[in-house]
Amino acid sequence: MRMTAIIDSIGPKQPDPDNGKTYDRLLTTPKCAIKLLNWGEVGESQINEALRLAIKYFGLKQVSSEEEYL
Q1: Which of 6, 25, 27, 41 has a 20 to 30 A CA-CA distance from 68?
Q2: Is 42 within 8 Å of 4 (Cβ atoms)?
Q3: Three-state SS letters, the chain
């Protein structure tokens, strides 16, 4: 999924209905997402555009520099 959204709550981890595996979830920064996803220039553009839209539409003044496993 590629989207911009405000996350106001995160429920407990659940098994993937497709294969039954429960995956770790990492809440990360846009800068770290670029490195982790390794989608190349196109992916970097998508992440930067999502950030630009979040700033524009949600009025963000800063982006967290912390990561957290959920």
Answers
A1: 41
A2: no
A3: CCCCCCCCCCCCCCCCCCCCCCCCCEECCHHHHHHHHCCHHHHHHHHHHHHHHHHHHHCCCCCCCCCEEC
Question: What is the span of the domain harbouring residue 33?
Answer: 26-69
Residue 4 belongs to some domain of the structure? no
Whether residue 54 is contained in a domain is answered as yes
pLDDT digits (tens, 9 = 90+) for 20-69: 999 999 999 999 999 999 999 999 999 999 999 999 999 988 888 889 99
Axis-axis angle for helices 30-37, 40-58 (nearest 10): 160
Number of compact structural domains in the chain: 1
Calpha distance 34→41 (Å, rounded) = 9
Is there a domain that residue 39 lies in? yes
Average pLDDT value for residue range 1-7: 78
